[in-house]
Amino acid sequence: MRLNRTNSTPCENGNWKYDVLQLLSARALRNLYLKALNKKGFIILGMSSKRNRKVKTYNPKTRSKNRKLTIAAIVAIIAIAIAAYVVIAQGASHKTNLTAATTPSPSPSSSSTSPFPSVSPLTSPAGEYSVSGTKVLFITSMGDIVIQLRNDKPTTTSNFVNLVKEGYYNDTTFMRVIAGFMIQGGEGKTTVPTIQDEIGNDNVNSNMTIAMAKTNEPNSATSQFFINVADNNSTSFDSTYTVFGQVIYGQNTVMAISQVPVEYSSTYQENCQPVTPVYLIGAVVMP
User: Pick from 254, 253, 274, 255: which is nearest to 263 by CA?
Assistant: First the structure.
């Protein structure tokens, strides 16, 4: 812009040159002031007079923002950890419940909680067998056998039960075995008094019945018994040996014992002695 002398306002001394110098001086001061402001602005904005050098400065807004982000990150981590713990805990609980649901609890009547096998008692013929009839468990080296005793043979059954309770049959053997005929046991280490025969009207040596062994003499039975593995109900047989019970459990064990390899027995003078002893480990009256 060009300064017009005529239109200019004279200063107090009326010298226009002085006015120009004064104006220039004012501009110079203004420029210096602006430069000072700009320099201060560079410092505030993080710039020094050397523009290629960066200076770290404190910025309250930035620090506040960073603090908020840090807090949010911590809260997120805590939330993720809690969620993971809940998921794991629920998974473990579900696995436990599934295991409990898929694993059946043993029944109180099962063999896992009772030393006695589950059996179905004989109830007939009436007068001979009943639900409450006495049952004896034979624990053998080849398996368990359960015998239900007859109610109508009191002398024979009482003698047999007393010997069982005394432990007389424990650790004995089936010393005479003949396939297709019978297996014989009950030979103890001591002598037992003889008992009376109880033949009666219904004394049949059918398959899986138990009878007292004896000599050819009447009333000579003591402790030895035999289990029929066939129908040995001949007239002479039934009139000699007292039948006092029947196998109601372990029939397969009885048959297996009857088929073991045997060798000659000097006592019985025949091939009937098991090559490998078959033990009657124990006999117990069942509850």
Answer: 274
Residues 66 and 163 occupy one common structural domain: no
The DSSP bridge partners found for residue 47 are: 54
User: Mapping DSSP to helix (H, G, I), strand (E, B) and coil, where does residue 180 land?
Assistant: coil
- If phi over 0 gives left and psi between -120 and 50 gives alpha, with beta otherwise, what is residue 171? left
- What is the arithmetic mean of pLDDT over 98-118? 53
What distances in angstroms separate CA 279 from CA 24, 55, 117, 230, one per listed residue? 135, 101, 19, 22
Instruction: Give the Cα-Cα-Cα angle 280, 222, 268 (nearest 5 degrees).
Output: 70
The answer to the question of residue 124 being in a domain is no
Domain extent, residue 86, equals 61-103
Let me know: does 119 contact 146? Beta carbons within 8 Å. Answer: yes
Worst-scoring range by mean pLDDT, 100-109, 217-226, 235-244, 260-269?
100-109
Sign, Cα dihedral of 23, 28, 31, 37? negative
Looking at the structure of the chain, the number of domains it has is 3
Q: Are residues 139 and 276 in the same domain?
A: yes
Contact, 186 vs 162, CB < 8 A?
Answer: no
Q: Is the pTM of this model over 0.90?
A: no
In terms of DSSP H, where are the helices of the chain? 16-44, 60-102, 154-166, 235-238, 251-258
Contact 241, 220 (CB under 8 A): no
